[in-house]
Structures are given as structure tokens and as C-alpha cells.
């Protein structure tokens, strides 16, 4: 593995995380300085501007404690590769606080650009986040944070500001009822909208963009973004 990481310019950050939810390894650092890594299926890009992520975890996890204590994490995008997914499963085992899951799984930390938790070299794209808010309910914790730096493997990066899907090879975790099963999500199929009539019935809802000068919401091309 000898991948050059490209530092992505801010205006391209949003397009670098695709699809809008996929399997990641989140790295955090505890208050007493221990590095932690945990796989999460619940990484979702929740805002385009500022580009922001949500992650939902067990309230009893080390990730939850670290997010509350230090307010930083790195979203590392995991490629669909059997060896790598095996390492992800190792990182998901319930190791003690002092144990570094990256060592256990045979993954390589590299320093981040803006935050203390490391990037993971074997992952393809990295979104460094600072917590905006945290909500706890039942036995869960949800954190939303804004992105402060993005980097990506050179071969996964199209300088036009898009990812190269077949190089990045994002994956989705099927969930615990499906044991160790994952779905590859890197064969996008373009689908035309089979409708060419008016679509102005929702212009009263400012869900795409803030209102323009006349107070009417600006509906952008593409009828919304994921
Ligand atoms: C593929 C995979 C996906 C997972 N996704 C989540 C998730 O979205 N949320 C969660 O709370 N735990 C998830 N887990 C379980 C945690 O990774 C696991 O409980 C881990 O030990 C928590 O680590 P931590 O205590 O170091 O944060 C997942 C595990 C695997 C293997």
C-alpha cells in the first residue's frame, strides 16, 4: 500500500462522501490520549453546507465517551475488499479502553491534517470532524459534527471534484441480523426522471435553499440533493 493522499479543496468536500451513507471506521482519541477505532454503519452526511456528518453509537461505547470528552473524530471510508472487511470486523470487537483497535486489526494510523484522531491509511477517504452537538436518548448517542478537512487516495479522486467509484469501492454493512454480510455500492446506474411536467408544488417549502430576495425559495436544478 503506497497511496498518495490528496488534500481536497473545500468546495469539493460535499461530493467526496458518496453514497450519502456508507460503512466507515471512526477514529477518536480519549481524554487520556488513547487512540480508538470503531466500525460504524450509521455514518451519514447530513448537511451540504457546512458539510457535516452524523454518527449514532451505543452510549456505552468508547467512541461515545471520546466524542463527549474531546469533540473530534475522523470518518474513514472503508473499501469493499474482503481482507479489509475482515479487519473492520476485528476493530468492532469489544476491546478494552487502553487497547488500540488499529494495532489489533493490522491497520496503519497516519496523522490527520486538522484533528488529533488519526486517519487510517488503508481507508480511501477521510473526513475530519469537530462536534457541533450531541444528543443522548435510550442507550444511544448521536453526534453531528462539521468537517474541517478532507483527504482522499489519489486514484479515487477525479480532479473535477468527484470520486472515482470503482477505485473508492464504498461498502454498506447489512446489519447485525445479517451477521458478517456487506453490500458493495460502487456501480451507480443513472436513472432518468420519467416525468417532464411542472414540479413547483413544493416551492412553499424552503427545503432546498434559503429564500431568494423576493422571499420565494430558490429551487435548484436536480430537484434536491441526497
Ligand atoms: C460492520 C460493523 C458496523 C457497526 N456499526 C455500528 C453502528 O453503526 N453503531 C454502533 O453503535 N455500533 C456499531 N458497530 C459495533 C461497534 O463497532 C462495536 O460495538 C465496537 O466495539 C464499539 O467500539 P468502541 O467501544 O471502541 O467505540 C458495528 C460493528 C461492525 C462490525
Question: How are the secondary structure elements laid out?
Answer:
Blueprint: E1 5-7, H1 13-16, E2 24-29, E3 35-40, E4 43-48, E5 51-58, H2 62-70, E6 72-77, H3 82-91, H4 101-105, E7 109-110, E8 119-120, E9 125-137, E10 140-153, E11 157-158, E12 162-163, H5 165-168, E13 171-173, E14 182-184
Bound molecules: flavin mononucleotide.
Keywords: Flavoprotein, FMN, Oxidoreductase
Enzyme class: oxidoreductase
InterPro entries: Flavin_Rdtase-like_dom, Split_barrel_FMN-bd
Short description:
This is Flavin reductase family protein. The protein is of the alpha+beta class and 226 residues long. It has 2 domains: 5-184, Electron Transport, Fmn-binding Protein, Chain A (Pnp Oxidase, Chain A), CATH 2.30.110; 192-226, no CATH class.
> Number of DSSP helices?
5
User: Can you list the ligands bound to this structure?
Assistant: flavin mononucleotide
Most strands sheet: 8 strands, antiparallel
| Form type | globular
Please write the CATH class name of the largest domain.
Mainly Beta
Question: How many DSSP-defined strands?
Answer: 14
Q: Label the CATH architecture of the largest domain.
A: Roll
Beta fraction = 25-35%
Give the termini distance in whole angstroms.
32 Å
Low-confidence stretches: 221-225
> Could you give me the name of the CATH homologous superfamily of the largest domain?
Electron Transport, Fmn-binding Protein, Chain A
CATH topology tier name of the largest domain:
Pnp Oxidase, Chain A
What is the averaged pLDDT score? 91
Number of domains: 2
**Share in helix:** 10-25%
Q: Which structural class matches the secondary elements?
A: alpha+beta
H/E element order: EHEEEEHEHHEEEEEEHEE
State Rg: 19 Å
Keywords: Flavoprotein, FMN, Oxidoreductase
Family: Belongs to the flavoredoxin family.
Domain Flavin reductase like: 17-165
Cofactor: FMN
Amino acid at each position: 500500500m503506497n497511496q498518495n493522499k490528496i488534500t481536497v479543496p473545500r468546495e469539493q468536500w460535499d461530493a467526496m462522501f458518496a453514497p450519502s451513507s456508507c460503512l466507515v471506521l471512526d477514529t477518536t482519541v480519549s481524554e487520556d490520549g488513547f487512540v480508538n477505532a470503531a466500525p460504524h454503519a450509521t455514518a451519514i452526511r447530513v448537511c451540504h453546507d457546512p458539510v457535516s456528518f452524523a454518527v449514532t453509537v451505543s452510549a456505552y461505547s468508547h467512541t461515545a465517551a471520546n466524542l463527549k470528552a474531546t469533540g473530534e473524530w475522523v470518518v474513514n471510508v472503508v473499501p469493499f475488499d474482503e481482507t479489509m472487511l475482515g479487519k473492520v470486523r476485528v476493530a468492532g470487537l469489544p476491546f478494552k479502553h487502553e487497547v488500540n483497535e488499529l494495532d489489533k486489526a493490522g491497520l496503519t494510523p497516519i496523522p490527520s491534517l486538522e484533528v488529533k484522531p488519526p486517519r487510517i491509511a488503508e481507508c480511501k477517504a477521510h473526513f475530519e470532524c469537530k462536534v457541533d452537538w450531541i444528543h443522548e436518548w435510550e442507550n444511544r448517542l448521536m453526534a453531528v459534527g462539521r468537517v474541517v478537512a478532507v483527504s482522499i487516495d489519489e486514484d479515487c479522486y477525479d480532479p473535477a471534484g468527484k470520486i472515482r467509484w470503482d477505485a473508492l469501492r464504498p461498502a454498506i454493512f447489512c446489519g447485525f441480523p445479517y451477521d458478517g454480510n456487506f453490500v458493495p455500492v460502487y456501480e451507480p446506474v443513472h436513472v432518468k426522471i420519467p416525468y417532464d411536467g411542472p414540479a413547483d408544488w413544493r416551492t412553499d417549502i424552503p427545503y432546498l435553499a434559503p429564500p431568494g430576495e423576493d422571499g420565494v425559495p430558490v429551487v435548484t436544478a436536480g430537484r434536491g440533493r441526497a
